[in-house]
Design brief:
Number of strands: 12
Distance between the termini: 24 Å
Number of helices: 0
Strand order of the largest sheet: 1-4-7-10
Structural class: mainly beta
Strand content: 35-45%
């Protein structure tokens, strides 16, 4: 089930922490293609810190409120990826696999060369 991280389901601001979610390890799944798996990761210093092999981040609102439209940005990165390999961020937008990333100082910051970002348009939202 999805979580509200750095905010709550009423979209209250100011509840954030350093990084909303730090993923260290392999084969983790953050979110998913259906709305019940969606995480709202907003109002933190940074959204997601990603490090590991084979991790997947899909279907989340990062830097937005639960409506997917209202800006509730993280101060720094939406997703910061360092030390990640063979990871998947996003996917087929028509299947709900893409993340909506907006309102952060940067969408995706990556220091990795073997991470895929299909269907991602950081900074764009409806």
């Amino acid at each position: 089930l999805g979580c509200a991280i750095g905010t709550d389901w009423s979209d209250a601001a100011g509840k954030g922490i350093n990084y909303g979610l730090s993923v260290y390890g392999d084969s983790n799944i953050v979110g998913g293609p259906d709305s019940s798996s969606r995480n709202i990761i907003s109002g933190n210093n940074g959204g997601i810190w990603l490090s590991g092999i084979g991790n997947t981040v899909q279907g989340n609102y990062i830097g937005l409120a639960s409506d997917g439209l209202t800006i509730l940005g993280n101060v720094n990165h939406g997703i910061y990826s360092r030390g990640s390999f063979q990871c998947l961020i996003g996917g087929d937008q028509t299947q709900g696999e893409g993340n909506i990333i907006s309102g952060n100082s940067s969408g995706i910051t990556s220091y990795d060369t073997i991470t895929e970002y299909p269907g991602q348009s950081p900074g764009d939202h409806p």
